[in-house]
Amino acid sequence: MQFTSEQRLDDAVLEREFILGEIPGILWTPGSASASAPAPLILLSPPPLGLRKTYPRLLARARHSAADGFATATIELPGIGDRPRWPAAEQALADLRRAMEAGEPVSDEIIDALILPLVDKAVPEWQAALDALLPLPEIGGPVGYSGGVISIGTRLAVVEPRISAAVLFAGSFVPRAMFEEARQVTIPLHVLLQWDDEGNDRQTALDLFDAFGSKEKTLHANMGGHTGVPQFAGDAAAQFFTRHLK
């Protein structure tokens, strides 16, 4: 991992951009990296829109987490932003848009083609990011995962023992194959669901929550569309991390 830039946003947050192989990312740490005690780490998984487009949203979450004493890090998803184009993913996205514009049901084949290869590529990259981040002196354990494509979070919760708790956002399509993986999840979960999310099948989200094998799992549902998550829902997610990572 190579740091490419550094700026102090204020007395509370140090922001550093980095490159991990070909993967761009950002690390935010509370206060001075050299003066702070090691902080628990939250992985901020972005939506598939690119870090540049979602930076204000990610930064707001990073500032909130820094105030609670957490370091946060994000990386660009495969085929998104400045990363090399991914023709198969672009074709799957085009098929999805055509089906939705035509008012047709989105088939399992389209969902599988869109989500499963993304999960297969993104999860090892998150694990590589953890390999690079955890040895830093300003980073300690434990580790949480927050947001992003829910299938990525589900897979990570199964295969990555360094993740102790996760906040998942039920706002993306879910392949049927992910339900079996969800049954293997055992870490504490806090799941956010927007009841009127125009791009999300509510019943599938509820069925996935039911499938999670965790003994501690909370569903936090609110009225409104995909981007209408209320501030108090974010506060509840932050409190969840404070309970489980400190």
How would you summarize this macromolecular structure in one to three sentences?
With 246 residues, the protein is of the alpha/beta class.
Provide a count of the helices.
7
Strand portion: 25-35%
Order of helices and strands: EEEEHEHHEHEHEHEH
The poorly predicted ranges are: none
Question: Helix proportion of residues, in percent?
Answer: 40-55%
Rg calculated over all Cα atoms = 17 Å
Number of DSSP-assigned strands: 9
Mean pLDDT equals 90
Numbering strands along the chain, what is their spatial order in the largest sheet? Answer: 1-2-3-5-4-6-7-8-9
Q: Note the overall shape.
A: globular
Gap from first CA to last CA = 27 Å
Write a structural description:
There is one protein chain. This protein is of the alpha/beta class and 246 residues long. Helices cover 40% and strands 26% of the residues. The chain is built from seven helices and nine strands. It has helices at 51-67, 87-101, 108-133, 150-159, 177-182, 202-211, 231-245; strands at residues 2-10, 13-20, 23-30, 39-45, 71-75, 139-147, 163-169, 189-194, 217-222. The chain has a nine-stranded mixed β-sheet with strand order 1-2-3-5-4-6-7-8-9, sandwiched between helices. Strand 8, helix 6 and strand 9 form a beta-alpha-beta unit. The longest helix is centred in the middle third of the chain and has 26 residues, at 108-133. It is globular and about 50 Å long. The model has no long low-confidence stretch (mean pLDDT 90).
